[in-house]
Amino acid sequence: MSKTQIERGDGGKWKSGQSGNPKGRPPKATQELQRLIGSRQPELIERTIQMALDGDMAAMKLLLERVLPPLKASAAPVSIELPEGGSLADNAKAILSAAANGQVPGDVASQLISAIGATAKVVEIDEISERLEALEAAAHEQE
After folding, report:
1. How far apart are CA 140 and CA 143, in angstroms?
2. Which DSSP letter does residue 11 get?
3. Are 14 and 20 in contact, with CB atoms under 8 Å apart?
4. pTM of this structure
C-alpha cells in the first residue's frame, strides 16, 4: 500500500483517526476565491441585477431568494360571536356552529378548538394547584 492510500477497518469503515480524504481541501483556495469575489462584489451584484432586469430568471430567482424571506402560509382573521361569560365548552360549540354554517373555514375552527383544549388544560392545572394548596393549608392547621 502506498502512503496516500488509507486502510479501512472491518465492514469497510475508515479506521479511527483516519480520514477518507487525508489531504483535505486546501483552505487557501477558498480564502483566495473569497478575496477575489469580495473585491468585485459590487460589480457582481450590479451585473446580477442587470441580468435579472434583462429577463434572466435564474438571476432573478437568486436575487429574490437572498433578499425576500419565503412567505409563510397564514389564515385570514375571522370573527366569531362567542357567548358572553360562556364556558370553554360553550365557546367550542359556538366555533363548531360557525364552521358548520360556513362562517369559518374548517381548518381554522380546528385550530381554535385545539387552542381551547390547551386553555382547558391550563385552567385544570391551575384549579388542581389551588385545591392542593387548600388541602395542604388544612393539613397544617390540623397539626
Report:
1. 5
2. G
3. yes
4. 0.48
Spatial contact of 37 and 44, defined as CB atoms under 8 Å apart? yes
Nearest alpha-carbon partner for 93 in 80, 78, 105: 80
**HSE (side-chain half, CA atoms, 13 Å) at 2:** 3
Mean pLDDT confidence for 42-65: 94
For CA atoms 118, 120, 125, 129, give the dihedral sign: positive
58 or 66, which is more confident: 58
In a domain, 41, yes or no: yes
User: 137 and 96 share a domain?
Assistant: yes
Burial class of residue 99 (count of CB atoms within 10 Å of its CB; 0-12, 13-18, 19+):
buried
| Half-sphere CA count of 19, side-chain side, radius 13 A | 6
In the chain, the percentage of residues whose pLDDT exceeds 70 is 87
Domain count, the chain: 2
Point out which residues pair with 8 in neighbouring strands. 14
- Residue 136 domain-assigned? yes
Q: How far is CA 63 from CA 29, 35, 38, 54, 69, in A?
A: 26, 21, 17, 13, 11
Is residue 118 a contact partner of residue 86, using CB atoms and an 8 Å limit? no
